[in-house]
């Protein structure tokens, strides 16, 4: 079985476990609500679900966060012990209470508003 086929099976399993239908339009809609870059097409998503392609790492990370699965497992089918949690702890430790509150408010927003806020932050960060 090819890597893309194996990835496809894990993606479909993760979608079903999270309560989503394994349809391209569902994945396309949910992904684009969460991704701050250029939106993807239904055709691209169909290739992921049909085992014809594997998303780039940044896109894979968004899918894994949405479906609450380990990105390494989603991509390769192997579990890493705590690596994702450890990564989150590193940046979290450096936050002030006000920054934590801002992140909590941001995370409570619906996906489309989080995307909008992300675009504003990206625009403000440009020199």
Automatic annotation (TrEMBL):
PROSITE patterns to which the protein is assigned, alphabetical: HTH_CROC1
HTH cro/C1-type domain boundaries: 40-74
UniProt GO molecular function: DNA binding
Gene3D superfamilies found in the cross-reference section: lambda repressor-like DNA-binding domains
Pfam families: HTH_3
Coiled-coil region list: none
Protein name: Helix-turn-helix domain-containing protein
Organism: Marinomonas profundi
Lineage: Bacteria, Pseudomonadati, Pseudomonadota, Gammaproteobacteria, Oceanospirillales
């Amino acid at each position: 079985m090819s890597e893309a086929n194996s990835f496809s099976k894990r993606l479909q399993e993760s979608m079903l476990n999270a309560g989503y239908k394994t349809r391209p339009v569902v994945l396309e809609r949910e992904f684009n609500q969460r991704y701050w870059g250029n939106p993807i097409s239904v055709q691209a998503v169909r290739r992921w679900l049909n085992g014809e392609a594997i998303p780039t790492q940044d896109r894979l990370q968004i899918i894994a966060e949405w479906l609450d699965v380990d990105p390494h497992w989603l991509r390769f089918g192997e579990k890493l012990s705590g690596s994702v949690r450890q990564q989150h702890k590193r940046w979290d430790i450096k936050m002030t209470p006000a920054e934590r509150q801002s992140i909590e408010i941001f995370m409570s927003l619906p996906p489309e508003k989080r995307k909008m806020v992300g675009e504003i932050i990206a625009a403000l960060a440009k020199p």
